[in-house]
Amino acid sequence: IHSFPMEHTSDLLRLISLYRFGGIYLDMDIIVLKSLEKLPLNYVGAESNYSLCNAVIGLAADGIGHEVAELFLERYVKYFNGKAYAQNGPALVTAVLLKFCGTSLMKAMEDGRKSCKGFRLFNTTAFYSIPWQEWRHFTEPRYLEETMERTKDSLMIHIWNIASRRERIKVDSNIAYVKYAEKYCPRTYAVAGDYF
Questions:
Q1: Hey, CA dihedral for 53, 25, 101, 158, is it positive or negative?
Q2: 3-state DSSP assignment of residue 95
Q3: Cα gap 55→90, rounded to integer Å
Q4: Which of 63, 76, 94, 103: disulfide with 52, CB 3.0–4.6 Å?
Q5: Going by C-beta distance under 8 Å and a sequence separation of 6 or more, which residues neighbour residue 151?
Q6: Per-residue pLDDT tens digits for 69-79
Q7: Which of 175, 179, 92 is CA-nearest to residue 138?
Q8: Rounded to an integer, what distance in angstroms lies between the CA atom of residue 37 and that of residue 23?
Q9: Which segments constitute the Alpha 1,4-glycosyltransferase domain (predicted)?
Q10: How many C-beta atoms surround the C-beta of residue 19 within 10 A?
Q11: Residue 26, Cα to own-chain centre: how many angstroms?
């Protein structure tokens, strides 16, 4: 029995695609704040001090990128659990890369590519400055200044659509989500109508 069929299918398809072609996978609710063109492939980011996330994955089509993609797929097949939301996504990426790096998550984040065979584990600031538990920071005016400050050094932000998807966002709202959309997604913002 599968409790999260769409999510687990997405988990698998991103891994297969990265294994086959390499490249950058981004969840649909990621807003890119800084160009990724000069960012070397073979990276993921931490969503906390003890867990990586699979909403952003950059892998080369060969070398360690391909090796890590293969390890991801092997673990997916071996430990698939249709009832656990994070088992086949963040938990999988965390388990594989901790073993691959042979060190703690904190050490691998601090040392950059040095302590993980050339693979990079970004700290939470890079992609997930606002953790999923605080998703309302993107949708409520009272958090605007704090959210903009906390994400000022981020490469991208994750809006956590799993939690925020039922929110009706007015295009002229004074909230972080609208400010980011207006600046970094101007075409989408321009055609959105009254609500996102």
A1: negative
A2: helix
A3: 8
A4: 94
A5: 33, 129, 130, 157, 176
A6: 999 999 999 99
A7: 175
A8: 11
A9: 63-191
A10: 18
A11: 6
